[in-house]
Amino acid sequence: MNPRLARLQPYPFERLAGLLAGAVPPADRAPISLGVGEPQHPAPDCARQAIVDNLDGFSRYPATRGEAGLRETIADWLTRRFGLADCPPDPDTQILPVAGTREALFAFAQTVVAGPDARVALPNPGYQIYEGAALLAGAEPLYLPCRADNGFRPDLDAVTAAQWRQCELVYLCSPGNPSGAVLDADYLARALALAERHDFLLAADECYSEIYFDEQAPPPGLLEVAARQGNDRFQRCVVFHSLSKRSNLPGLRSGFVAGDADVLRQFLRYRTYHGATLGPPVQAASRAAWSDETHVLANRDAYRAKLDAVLPILAPVLDVTRPAGSFYLWPALPEQVAGGDDETFIRALFEQENLRAVPGRYLGREAGGSNPGNGRLRLSLVAGVPECIEAAHRIVRVAERLGA
């Protein structure tokens, strides 16, 4: 067996299953899950119909680089969304469809990490795929703490010059999982300057980029910032986007990577062997989804309604703030509630109210003497508005029983 497999941490939901083992929820409470970040809003009709209209495509092998029509649709969307009219991405060299961002984020590290002493920097807390990708590529993870005093942004100042020199890849996520923090243009410009100075790549996970709450200020993207600085070839920049969150299509497994043509040429070569291609009906549905913004606006409205309903309920018992993006809440437990222990509180939620959520520590790592996720909860507002409201009331009841 690959000895690096032994270094992989249990996935958060595996740890959650262990935490809840033996607990019996009350029979008079219908189960509600705020655990998995799986969108529950309806899939757009245009994507459904596109699959039906293209079922014959299942009889053909798909090309690894995807159909030209899909790449052109993606390039058009990127150009509109991120103001790239002066340097639109080339569909032939700077766009590559992928089977969802999860597999691409993982595979990317296997392609680009080269040195035996390589470091891969990643947010802490953050999406566990970044860490697994680094470890299985033979690199050491370099954890960038995301703390409240830094706006939950990965702390670039926590890295020494010597560590940056070893760094070959940096994962960023904006809006962030689990905090919903948005990396502004100044932050992205600084990260790009570091990449140029120390010669590493930036992998920007932007799969939550279309879930934000100020319609006048959509989150900036890495390609957008690179273009503003004159980097119109997007050197050292690769962005990852998905239809899972934007369009409520997690089961479609459809996304794309875009950016530096030299890097994507090598990634395409890797993927020719890796084999994660999109079937023609999936590509047709993807074209339809990327071409429609009506359902995306409705999606944001639905998440905005949940925040408006839930935050006033939770505010008296949790230290919770309104996120700039994503569909997560990342509240801190007050010390008087279960001693501020996130595992104790999450198990009590299940035992007393039949509600699932994730302890914050499961999304973080102990680094520099602390785990930035300790004492926090990740609440995924993916259920309907009534269920989210009911879940908030259940959280309040448990908090009051445990000392609020």
TrEMBL record:
Q: Which InterPro entries match?
A: Aminotransferase_I/II_large, DapC_beta/gammaproteobac, LL-DAP_aminotransferase, PyrdxlP-dep_Trfase, PyrdxlP-dep_Trfase_major, PyrdxlP-dep_Trfase_small
Documented EC number(s): 2.6.1.17
- MF (Gene Ontology): succinyldiaminopimelate transaminase activity
Q: Does the keyword Transferase apply?
A: yes
Assigned keywords, A-Z: Aminotransferase, Transferase
Q: Which Gene3D superfamilies match?
A: Aspartate Aminotransferase, domain 1, Type I PLP-dependent aspartate aminotransferase-like (Major domain)
Query: Which EC class is the enzyme in?
Result: transferase
Per UniProt, residues of the Aminotransferase class I/classII large domain are 32-386
Q: Where would one find coiled-coil regions in this protein?
A: none
Write down the required cofactor(s): pyridoxal 5'-phosphate
Say yes or no: keyword Endoplasmic reticulum present: no
Domain of life per record: Bacteria
Q: Supply the CDD domains for this chain.
A: AAT_like
Entry-linked PANTHER family = AMINO ACID AMINOTRANSFERASE, L-GLUTAMINE--4-(METHYLSULFANYL)-2-OXOBUTANOATE AMINOTRANSFERASE
Name-wise, this protein is Succinyldiaminopimelate transaminase
Record organism: Spectribacter hydrogenoxidans
